[in-house]
Amino acid sequence: MGLGDHIAPFATDLFGGQFEKKSFAVEHRRKLLAPAEGRVLEVGAGTGFNLPHYPPQVSELVVTDRLDGMLHRARKRAAASGREIATARVTGESLPYEDGSFDTVVASFVLCSVAEQDPVLAEIRRVLKPGGRYLFMEHVRSDDPALARKQDRYEGLWKAVCFGCHCNRDTLPRIQAAFQVEEVEHDELPSGPPKIVRPFVLGRAVKR
Fold this sequence. Notes:
By secondary structure, the chain is α/β, with parallel strands linked by helices. Helices cover 37% and strands 25% of the residues. The chain has one domain (3-206): Vaccinia Virus protein VP39 (Rossmann fold, 3-Layer(aba) Sandwich), CATH 3.40.50.
């Protein structure tokens, strides 16, 4: 594993792990994952913060990330929660699965850090069955003009220190262009993370 394979997973668990212990984080991850069922693919799973919260109607769970270090920690987290998973080191732009092979695809805080959103959404759509669900939770551009300007101002710095995360992307319209969004919630993370990454959307979309 390269240096980034060690630093990114360590930083993810060090800084994100404290937030994940809070009831707010647990509540929203459970809300995100409640509709998941059948054969499920999680794209960009990181160190596996979602894994303890998947519902029992999930029959098979495939977890991907672009870094081996993330998947190593995800496997440990899965074992600790008593969940069996399959893992694959792949990027969201090139998923090695057949068309229509999953009932549900999950991605949380992924589209903020990919190079291009549309190719990832196209791959998610491709591997979903017709009528399958795409469950998403993503950092987004703020509706508050003053905060949006701050997001623009600090986007380059944030991207450099947070492994490619773009804090100012207007992500929901890209999702709506690829899927039929059936439910979406706009909210803000509580105090803790910097204000520029607090706005987020959580929702459910369907492949038609």
